[in-house]
Automatic annotation (TrEMBL):
This is Acyl-ACP desaturase. The keyword Lipid biosynthesis applies. It comes from Mycolicibacterium insubricum. InterPro entries: Fatty_acid_desaturase-2, Ferritin-like_SF, RNR-like. Residues 284-311 form a coiled coil.
Length: 325
C-alpha cells in the first residue's frame, strides 16, 4: 500500500472537497451579527464622554465571564487558523473557495461575541483587548512533534478541525446556557450551528481520505486524538479558566470523549472497517486502548469533581464563589 503525499491528497480529494463545499453552501443560512446584539444596553466609555467599565456593570457570573473570554479569544486567533489552512491546503479550485468561505464565516463569531460583551459591559474591555493582543501575537500552530506524528499537512488540516470544530461547538453551546441571558444563549446557539456545519465539511473530507488511504488516515486520526490541544491553548488564564469550565460542565473530559471524539469515529465506522492492513489493525488497537484510558480519566475526574462540589456545598459556598475558584 503506497504512502500518499500532500500533493496526492489534494489532487485525489479535490472532487470530494467540491462536493462537500457545495453541500455546505446549500445548508448554510445568512445571518448578521448586529441582529444578535442588544444595542440598547450599550453606552459610551470614558474616552467618548461616558464611564469606564466597572465590575458591578456586568450581569455575567465569574464562570460565564471566564467561558465567554475563553471562547472569544479562541475565535480571535482566526488569522493563525486561516494561515494554517492556506499553507496546507491549496488556494486553487474548491480548496481555495472553502478556505476563504470558512474564514469569512468564522470571522463573524468573534465580531458578534465581542459586540455583545461590549454592549452589555460583560467583561473588562481593557483586559480583554490586552489578552487578545497577547494571544494573537503568540498565535497557534501544530507543534513539530504533532506534525511529525500525523505525517502529512493535508491530513492535519482536515482531521484536526473535525474534532476542533466539534469542541468549539460544545463549548459555545454550553457557555450560552450559563450566561443566564436569553440573548447570549441565542447568539451562541447561532455560532454553534456554524461550528457544526464546519465540522461536517471536515468530517466528510476525512471520510474520503479514509477511503483513499485507510491506514495512513487512521494513523492521522489516532495521532490527533492522542495529542489533541484546544485552539485556545496558550491564551492568558487558559488553564485557570479551563479548570472552571470543566468543573462546572461547560467543557470537561467526559464531554470531550463522548461529544467530540466518539461521534466522528462512529461516523467513519473506525471500529467496523475491514480495509485496514495488519499495520492499520495494530494502530486501531492502540487507538482503542487510548480511548479506554480516556474513559478511565473521565470517570476519575467526575468522581473528584463530585466530591469537591459536594464538599463546597456542605460548607455553604455560593455558586458564584465556587465558580471563581
Amino acid at each position: 500500500m503506497r504512502t500518499l503525499t500532500d500533493a496526492d491528497y489534494l489532487t485525489e480529494l479535490e472532487s470530494a472537497a467540491e462536493n462537500a463545499l457545495n453541500q455546505h453552501l446549500a445548508r448554510t443560512t445568512d445571518w448578521y451579527p448586529h441582529d444578535y446584539v442588544p444595542w440598547n444596553k450599550g453606552s459610551n466609555f470614558a474616552a467618548t464622554g461616558g464611564q469606564e467599565w466597572d465590575p458591578a456593570q456586568s450581569q455575567l457570573s465569574e464562570l460565564a465571564k471566564a467561558a465567554m473570554i475563553t471562547n472569544l479569544l479562541t475565535e480571535d486567533n482566526l488569522p493563525s487558523y486561516s494561515r494554517e489552512a492556506m499553507t496546507h491546503l491549496s488556494l486553487d479550485s474548491a480548496w481555495g473557495t472553502w478556505v476563504n468561505r470558512w474564514t469569512a464565516e468564522e470571522n463573524r463569531h468573534g465580531i458578534v461575541m465581542r459586540d455583545y460583551l461590549l454592549a452589555t459591559r460583560g467583561v473588562d474591555p481593557v483586559a480583554l483587548e490586552q489578552a487578545r493582543m497577547e494571544h494573537m501575537t503568540n498565535g497557534f500552530a501544530p507543534t513539530p512533534e504533532e506534525e511529525e506524528a500525523i505525517g502529512t499537512h493535508v491530513l492535519m488540516a482536515i482531521v484536526y478541525p473535525t474534532f476542533q470544530e466539534l469542541a468549539t461547538r460544545v463549548s459555545h453551546r454550553n457557555t450560552g446556557k450559563v450566561c443566564n441571558d436569553p440573548v447570549a444563549d441565542k447568539l451562541l446557539q447561532r455560532v454553534s450551528a456554524d461550528e457544526n456545519l464546519h465540522m461536517i465539511f471536515y468530517r466528510q473530507l476525512s471520510a474520503a481520505a479514509l477511503d483513499l488511504a485507510p491506514d495512513q488516515t487512521l494513523h492521522a486520526v489516532a495521532s490527533v486524538i492522542e495529542n489533541f490541544r484546544m485552539p485556545g491553548t496558550g491564551m492568558p488564564n487558559f488553564r485557570r479558566y479551563g479548570v472552571m469550565m470543566a468543573k462546572h460542565g461547560i467543557y470537561d473530559l467526559r464531554q470531550h470523549l463522548e461529544d467530540v471524539v466518539r461521534p466522528p469515529l462512529r461516523q467513519w465506522k473506525i471500529f467496523d472497517r475491514t480495509d485496514f492492513t495488519a499495520a492499520g489493525e495494530k494502530r486501531r488497537e492502540e487507538l482503542a486502548a487510548h480511548l479506554e484510558k480516556m474513559e478511565a480519566q473521565a470517570a476519575r475526574f467526575e468522581e473528584q469533581r463530585d466530591r469537591l462540589l459536594a464538599r463546597e456545598a456542605s460548607r455553604g459556598v455560593s455558586p458564584e464563589l465556587v465558580a471563581a475558584k
